[in-house]
Write a structure and sequence with these properties.
mainly beta, Immunoglobulin-like, about 575 residues, globular, 4-stranded mixed beta sheet
């Protein structure tokens, strides 16, 4: 059995006016990847004691705390994001009196909407994330710090990683509206959340012989995400199952949507993705599923199931990911052909088994019949070290991508469709991967010229990475009054090559970062000339700003002031 990792104490106390506040809920999250980027993952919940105290045992990592005061008080919620734990960590949370935001959720026709939840995201000045269920009358009430907020409505229980076996238990009347509402909360406010006019999206699913296919898991998601930094995190999708006649229906806001169809494990049909479907009127669309095979199995470690491991399959037109269930099981329905399977354990910070010590698993397979493929994960060899510049100074915040070495040179964007693992260098420049014996390429900030070949044998490997010409660029984004501007997206591109001037449609790729509560963001870049674009939240108070040409040949720190929008802008 593997050795348990060292754990640290993440603790503190909750106070108001120097007095302890008991009965406050403290929710602990870490961050996982689910194939769409990093997302918060629930770890644990505690209620503060008589002295306002709370305490969690965690491993080294980055965490988030959500502070939910007792409903009988007017204390405002808080979110403490990106808490870096490398040793025992203690701090004090001071509660402030907030404003009450309340109201009801109704359809455009005035009918009460039940079975949904309100998502709250702080625009300015606070970095707040909150979720509140509506009651049987469609009502909601939540205490928040004064400020400006995005609100979204999501059908309750509909998440991207919802257990397929529970989808059939969701209430009827599933709906999807990817729009965000904006509320300026300066005092107690009643805000009626009105859904837009919805269109009935109907579908009929059949096989190649024209027979209806029941129990197909249907996931509907907007083709283009809203111009909002929280759009991915909100996970505004709809999930339902086709009935015994192969029909499904969801009420959606008019727009363009992608539909993923995943047949049941015993159907011998292949999953299908249909992109960019324009839904502007109620009509029934037909979808046909071709024959396929079932790829299934269990992911285990030391004889015990590994739940929530990310299992990805790619090949042909398929690029799909799922998380293993509580028994470590996974299942895909695929057409025949060649595929690459990747399994990566999540770094569950409270798991009894130290999953972060396990290495990713990759397998190539040819699918011509139903195939059971059980995966036994192994404790990986440690590949660790520090990222250094040419002066041997550590570099923090460098994105590292690990690839299997399948040739002498990296081609294209790394010679692979996807890396097998990601990491970001810590404050001291340190990084670590867990791998199986083999040959790898390690790439910094997606710059293939930085690729370094590694050979992992039976023992742990230490390899410090030196990137010649690497420069650390730090921006502090503030208002005219030196107040930090959070949630500001910072895009860059090579000035000589040209590129997009930012814009809300740009994905948060390696060429973008978002400022935190302190208004800071840091890049590590090769020497060169760059253009930068600073984009605060669209519904916030500040104008965008651009630096068209900035020469970088050494470390650079700059304070960027954003102007307030003009009246009526």
């Amino acid at each position: 059995m593997t050795t348990r990792e060292v754990s640290y104490n993440l603790s503190g106390c909750v106070r108001n006016m120097s007095l302890a506040v008991a009965g406050t809920s403290i929710v602990l999250y870490d961050y996982w990847t689910t194939g769409r980027g990093l997302e918060r993952h629930f770890l644990a919940l505690q209620t503060t004691g008589a002295r306002g105290e709370f305490s969690f045992d965690v491993r080294k990592g980055i965490y988030c705390l959500e502070v939910i005061p007792n409903r009988d008080t007017r204390f405002a919620r808080q979110t403490l994001d990106t808490i870096k734990v490398t040793t025992n960590t203690t701090f004090t949370i001071n509660l402030q009196t907030g404003a009450i935001l309340s109201g009801r959720v109704r359809t455009a026709g005035g009918e009460i909407v039940r079975g949904c939840e309100i998502l709250v995201f702080g625009i300015e000045p606070s970095c707040i994330r909150a979720r509140e269920d509506v009651d049987a009358d469609g009502a909601y009430s939540i205490a928040l710090p004064r400020g400006k907020y995005y609100l979204a409505v999501r059908h309750k229980g509909v998440q991207a990683d919802a257990d397929p076996e529970s989808v059939s238990d969701l209430e009827t009347g599933t709906f999807l509206t990817p729009s965000f509402h904006v509320v300026d909360l300066e005092r107690d406010t009643r805000y009626a959340l009105m859904l837009p006019e919805l269109v009935r999206f109907k579908g009929a699913i059949s096989n190649a012989d024209g027979h209806p296919v029941p129990d197909v898991r249907v996931t509907i998601s907007p083709t283009n995400l809203p111009d909002n930094v929280f759009a991915v995190e909100a996970s505004l999708i709809a999930v339902c199952l086709s009935d015994k006649t192969g029909l499904f229906e969801v009420d959606v806001e008019p727009g363009t949507f992608d539909v993923k169809l995943e047949p049941g494990p015993n159907s011998h049909l292949s999953e299908r993705l249909v992109s960019a479907i324009l839904v502007d009127q109620a009509r029934t669309r037909t979808y046909s599923l071709g024959s396929g095979y079932r790829l299934y199995g269990q992911v285990v470690f030391a004889g015990e199931p590994v739940k929530n491991a990310l299992v990805s399959i790619s090949g042909g037109k398929i690029d799909s990911s799922i998380l293993t269930d509580a028994r470590g099981r996974y299942s895909f329905s695929l057409s025949g052909g060649s595929y690459e399977l990747n399994v990566a354990p999540q770094p569950d910070s409270l798991a009894r088994l130290p999953f972060r010590l396990l290495s990713p698993h990759t397998a190539c397979l040819s699918l011509a019949e139903d195939t059971q493929l059980n995966i036994e994960l192994k404790q990986g060899i440690s590949v660790c070290g520090k990222v250094l510049d040419h002066l041997q100074k550590p570099r923090a915040g460098v994105q590292l991508s690990l690839y299997h070495k399948k040739g002498d040179l990296l081609e294209g964007n790394g010679g692979q469709e996807r890396p097998i693992a990601f990491a970001i260098s810590g404050d001291d420049g340190s990084y670590e991967f867990r791998v199986t014996p083999g040959e790898y390429f390690l790439v910094m900030n997606n710059q293939k010229e930085s690729a370094q070949a590694l050979v992992a044998c039976q023992g742990d490997l230490r390899s410090d990475l030196t990137w010649q010409g690497a420069c650390q660029v730090s921006f502090e984004i503030v208002s005219e009054f030196d107040e930090p501007v959070s949630h500001c997206q910072v895009f860059y591109h090579d000035y000589k090559k040209g590129g997009p001037e930012g814009g809300g449609s740009a994905a948060l790729a390696p060429s973008a970062a978002i400022t935190g509560d302190d208004g800071l963001c840091i890049f590590t870049l090769p020497s060169g000339i760059y253009s930068f674009y600073f984009q605060p939240p669209a519904q916030g108070s500040f104008q965008t700003r651009q630096i068209r040409q900035l020469s970088i040949n050494g470390d650079l720190s700059r304070k960027i002031r954003l102007l307030l929008k003009e009246e009526g802008q």
